[in-house]
Every structure is written in C-alpha cells, then in structure tokens.
C-alpha cells in the first residue's frame, strides 16, 4: 500500500481517511477477484464503514452497507452468546453436564456446556450437510454422542465441532421453550438492533449477497447456493453485514447492554485444553482468541459456500474490525487488508496464523504415519513414491506435509509449493506414541498404523479403548524440503465443512515476553 500520512483522532490515535480505506478495498477486491466486500471498523471513538462491488455477479446488483452475506461459523458466536445470556440469568450453568438438559448426551456425562462452546468436548465434527439434511437434532446428536465417538476425554483437547453447536442450539431450545431461531433473535440480534436474516427463513427485505466460486473451465466467477442443513442452523445459518458483525463485536467486548459484561467475559475466558492449531491461538466459551503484536484479540472466522467473513475484537481498547466478502478468495483479501488497518486502530488485528518459517523441517517420526478418523472423515498420513510425507483426506489428493520438531506441521500446495499451517500430531503421555492428529482444528484419532500399545492416558474414564499394535519402528523418515514447499497453501477443502466452517487462521511465531496462553480478558 502506498504510504499515506495518517491524520489523528482527538485522543491522538492515528487514522486513515475513509476515502483511503475505500480505495484500498476497491484495489484489493479487484486484485483477489472478489465480486463484493464490506469493511466496518470501530476505532474506539468512531465507526467507519466502506463497501465495494456487486452482491451477485450474475445480476450485477451492487453491494450496499445493508447487504447481508452468509457468514458461516460466525453464527456460532451468536449461539454461544445466547447461552451466555441464559447463564448470566441463572438458567444455565456453563460447568454443569450438558446431559442434564439433553438426553442425547447422557452416555457422555463428562461433557459440560462449556466444553460444547469451546470445542473441547471431544465430539467429532458431525455429518456433512447432505447427510444432516435428513436428521433432526436429537437424531444427529444420538449418532455422534457415544463414548465410542469421543476423540479425547472432554476438556483434554480441542476439535472443532459443528455437532457441538447443534447440541448448544438444542440446549437453548430446551431452556427457553423457543426454537433456536426465535431465541437467538430475541436474546441477542434484535436487542443489538440487527434485523436478523437466517438461512431457510422466508425471503427478507434486506439485500442478500450470493457466494461465488470460479468456474475452472471459463475462469469466470459464478454464484453458488448455500446447502446448510436446517438442523445445522446454530452452527452456520446467520447472514449479516459488516456493520451487523460490528455490533456483535462490540457486545463481545462488553460494550453493549444486549450482552452483559460478565457474559461477554465468560465467552472470552480461555478454556483449559483448547489448542486450536491452525484456527487460532486459544478458545473461550464461544470466542476464538488471537495473539496480536502486543495484545490478545477475540472474534471468529466463517466460510459458507463462496463467502469469507471475519470478526476481530480488542476488549481493552474497544476496537472492532468486521469484514465480509462474497468469494472464497476474500480470505486472502482479508489477510492483506487486516495488516494495513493498524494505521487506523493503533494495533494490528491478527488475521491469520503464519506457517512455521524459521523452523527447518525435521524427519517425520515413523509413528506419525497411519490412518486417523474424525467421525466418518478419514485422514491418511503416509509417504509418497519418493519417500516424502503427505496428508490425504478421504482419499483426495496427497498434500505434501512439512513436519517441525514440536510435531506441528505445514501443508503445501502440490503445484505452487506455497505452505500454510496444517495442524499438529499428539503424542500420548502414557505410551509416548502418536495417537491423534489435528488438521485445520479438527482432531482425528488413530485407527490404523503405528498404534499405541495401551489405553491413552487422556482417554481414561471416557469409555474408550485404544487399539493395539505390534510395535512402532524406531526409524524416522527423512523429509526432503525442495523449493516446491515454500509459501502458503490452502488446507484441504475436504477437511473443512464449508457450510459452517471457520477458515484457517495461521499462528504467528512466539514473541519474546508473551505468555504461552492468553490472559483472561477483562
């Protein structure tokens, strides 16, 4: 971005002019092939909103400040906020077993409400939307909520789970006697002054943006539909403008009467055991936690079919940044734009977690090789014909895997070699053997390969029995790191449920003087 001397707010904080932001959003949308986008910023002293482009490439209808975009998993913040409001009223205890209200979870009484909201329950991701379309919430939960399905003992790990938010939505319904849609409107959205728009609702009088995908034959962007199943609504049904997300972010910072400050703080408080890997640096009871240059931020990312939406909140200063874009490539636009907003907010909002630059590749431990499973999704870690490590999801293309000494790994695009954080392997403290892998925030348990001899220590008491194996080889496999492994690459799409999935959000290297975990935000 060309250098533009900043002006200053009354409190001395630098600010870019609205016209500069508008021009930059226009430029980046063209550069990244995004039909339309919105950016809204609350600097702590004023609100600045800009938008660009078209809401639908087929019709040419322009974006407006009021245009709503399918936000995907940003919806989860609203579901968590509804639970937090009920908890603040004394109707729910975040640390009580969810099974107290949900009979579908009675087989796993260790799972608490807080576990559901912080993705530390051990529940799998859940069925895809096509399968979920034929299920009620009780039937969906009954299919994934047995001790056999748990990926780890509740509270001992992190695995991003849409099923957990289906359960949270069911909990809201049980406690309020309303549908989730009615409750999230009444408890949060309408008190915030938001005119709610949800997938599967009757047509709204608000303009709606379509998601877009690129036709590989013609290279043209074409509108795509949303296929979220009705039962998954608590995990991904919200449509919102950037200004709507700004209102949600201000509430998350504790600056709104719609969400009591104690409830907002509960959503931001770091959950023990939450290590989200490529998604964020920590997780609270609903809010993702991101480590910035000099402070902790919170928020959420969301990708629906052909959209990319992002929210960042600094609870200390009250700064909120909200972005919506109606193409998958808008994620890259957001990352470019977020880094430039420091001149406006006084602190750079962390947009993404970076690959392991500065850490050389190491040999892949032999006991990482194997097959892992999260529900019905299968992850294979193996060696290609040249002996180089790879990851494949459900038999899809083999993505080169670059392992680091701390068992974190990057994934590389096979064509460009661009790298992006992929996740990490988990070594069982009892057996010393790798028993799990986390890919884009989703944990998968080993089912084949160099499997642990004994029950993993962190599955004790969860009713799970680890498979046995004849013994792991003592050798390691040398990783060949050629030029094709540099840069960034997308996490495999098949590992992310696009209809309600958070986009990957790579983690920066540790900064001296940082705590290893986020402080409890005030």
UniProtKB/TrEMBL annotation:
Residues 412-431, 441-522 are annotated as: Disordered. Residues 22-329 form the Beta-lactamase-related domain. Gene3D superfamilies: DD-peptidase/beta-lactamase superfamily. Pfam families: Beta-lactamase (PF00144). Its EC number is 3.1.1.103. The keyword Hydrolase applies. The keyword Cell cycle does not apply. One of its GO terms (molecular function) is hydrolase activity. It comes from the Bacteria. Keywords: Hydrolase. PANTHER family: BETA-LACTAMASE-RELATED DOMAIN-CONTAINING PROTEIN, D-ALANYL-D-ALANINE-CARBOXYPEPTIDASE/ENDOPEPTIDASE AMPH. This is Serine hydrolase domain-containing protein. It comes from Streptomyces fragilis.
